Every structure is written in C-alpha cells, then in structure tokens.
C-alpha cells in the first residue's frame, strides 16, 4: 500500500474511530519547512505503515516555531501497532535531517460533532484554527455539553463569520479536554472575526458568555496553522 499525498484531511470522515493531535517545536520557520520536507521524504519513500491509519497531516504554526500533527485512525489498537512496528524508525530519520525537535503533548480524541461546509462549497482551507479547551477533571458528559453549548450559541447568530468553512469538535478520550479543528479560508478572515464585538468568534450574548465562562474550564488556547502536508493510503500492494 503506497503513500498518497492529498490536499487536506477530512476530519468528519465516518470511518475514523479516533484522532491523535500533537505538536512539535522546531524553533524557526526555516526548520518548520525542513521538518515538513523531511516528513514528506521519509513517508513518501516507504509503504503506508498500517491500514488502520486513515490520514496523517502536518500544519505549520503561525508562530514560525511549531508543527501540528493530526492523524486519524480506525482505533487505538491500530495506533499501538504503528508505534510498535514503525514509528521510531521514521522519527529517527526525520531527527537526523532536523536535529533537536521537541515533541510536545500527544492527545487522543474522538470526533463528537461537526459544523460542515454547505453542499457545493468548494472553498480551499487556507488556515486551520485549533481551539483547545481544558477542564478540571474527567467528565465526558461535560465535554459534550460544552460543545453543544457552542452549537446553541452559533444557532442564534444572524450570520456566521465571513471566511469560516467548517468546525470539527473532538472530545478527549480521557474526559478532560475538547479540541475544535476549524477550517477557514485564511488567517485574515479569522483575525477579522476575532476583532468583531464580543470575546472570540461570536456576538455578545448570554449563550456565548456561558460558553466562555463554563464551570470547570481551567485553560486552553487558540492557535492558527497553515496546512503543509497531508497523506493517506494509496493503491498498490
């Protein structure tokens, strides 16, 4: 099975049981590009590592220092098979090309709810906005209620922000966090949406205030990325 390079992942695909998200700190924009090139070379020179890996994507952080890794799997066992059989050899070759990569937290998620692009919407995803939310303990019902609160607040908006394409809300399998993988036309569109009245994307309202001041929220952040590399299994033996 070969490696096929694609335009972008589909976070809403129904055959993905879990998604993994992690960050690499590589330090500079030049090293960001060198790391992406090394990943492309290492993965492109090998057979696809496991049929349970459905997609693997890398996004370059607007900070010029980080890379977001987002991968979709049929389930946790497929990921563990990959770790046991091939992850380290790939990483060793990437590290040889770009020494000193700092690999930060890896978290496991399940897709809970998506706000999808309208039928016929062919806009390209020029910017991925990752919204992380952390809670003070494991509570899967609370994770989902917070996401539902976001959709309730969005449903009261007269119009959605210009440039927004889709949003994919993932809940952490450990019960403590939510990740929104949001697709935008450009970083400029997201910046303009944040500059509108209110705190964050959304007009001032009690519903948005509930989202922003939800009981038990302890942290999180918003980071913008440019899609750099996306791969999935191709044809062949």
- Tally of strands: 9
Low-confidence sequence ranges: none
Give the helix proportion (percent range).
25-40%
Enumerate how many helices there are, as a single number: 5
Find the structural class using helix and strand composition: alpha+beta
User: What's the average pLDDT?
Assistant: 93
Question: Strand order, biggest sheet?
Answer: 2-4-3-9-6-8-7-5
Report the major sheet.
8 strands, antiparallel, barrel
| Secondary-structure element string | EEHEEHEEHEEHHE
Q: What's a quick, concise take on this entry?
A:
The protein has 237 residues and is an alpha+beta fold.
Features:
globular, 8-stranded antiparallel β-barrel, 9 strands, single chain, 5 helices, alpha+beta, 237 residues
Structural notes for this entry:
The structure is a single chain. This protein is of the alpha+beta class and 237 residues long. Helices cover 30% and strands 36% of the residues. The chain has five helices and nine strands; from the N terminus they run ββαββαββαββααβ. An eight-stranded antiparallel β-barrel has the order 2-4-3-9-6-8-7-5, surrounded by four helices. A hairpin with a 4-residue loop joins strand 3 and strand 4. Helix 1 (29-44) packs across helix 2 (76-97) and helix 3 packs antiparallel against helix 5. The longest helix has 22 residues, at 76-97. It is globular and about 50 Å long. The N and C termini lie close together (5 Å). The model has no long low-confidence stretch (mean pLDDT 93). Keywords: Monooxygenase, Oxidoreductase. GO terms for molecular function: monooxygenase activity.
């Amino acid at each position: 099975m070969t490696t096929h390079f694609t335009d972008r992942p589909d976070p809403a695909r129904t055959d993905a049981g879990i998604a993994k998200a992690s960050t690499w700190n590589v330090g500079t924009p030049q090293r960001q590009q060198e790391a992406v090139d090394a990943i492309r070379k290492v993965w492109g020179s090998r057979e696809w590592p496991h049929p349970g890996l459905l997609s693997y994507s890398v996004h370059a952080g607007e900070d010029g220092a980080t890379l977001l890794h987002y991968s979709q799997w049929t389930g946790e066992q497929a990921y563990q098979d990959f770790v046991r059989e091939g992850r380290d050899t790939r990483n060793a070759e990437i590290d040889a090309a770009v020494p000193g990569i700092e690999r930060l937290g890896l978290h496991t998620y399940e897709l809970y709810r998506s706000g999808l692009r309208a039928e016929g919407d062919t806009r390209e995803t020029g910017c991925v906005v990752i919204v992380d939310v952390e809670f003070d303990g494991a509570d899967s019902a609370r994770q989902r209620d917070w996401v539902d609160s976001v959709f309730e607040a969005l449903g009261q908006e007269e119009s959605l922000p210009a440039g927004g394409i889709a949003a994919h809300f993932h809940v952490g399998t450990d019960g403590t966090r939510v990740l929104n993988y949001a697709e935008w036309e450009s970083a400029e569109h997201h910046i303009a949406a944040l500059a509108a009245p209110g705190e964050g994307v959304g007009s001032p309202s009690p519903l948005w205030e509930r989202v922003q001041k939800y009981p038990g929220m302890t942290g999180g952040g918003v980071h913008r990325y440019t899609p750099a590399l996306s791969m999935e299994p191709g044809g062949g033996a």
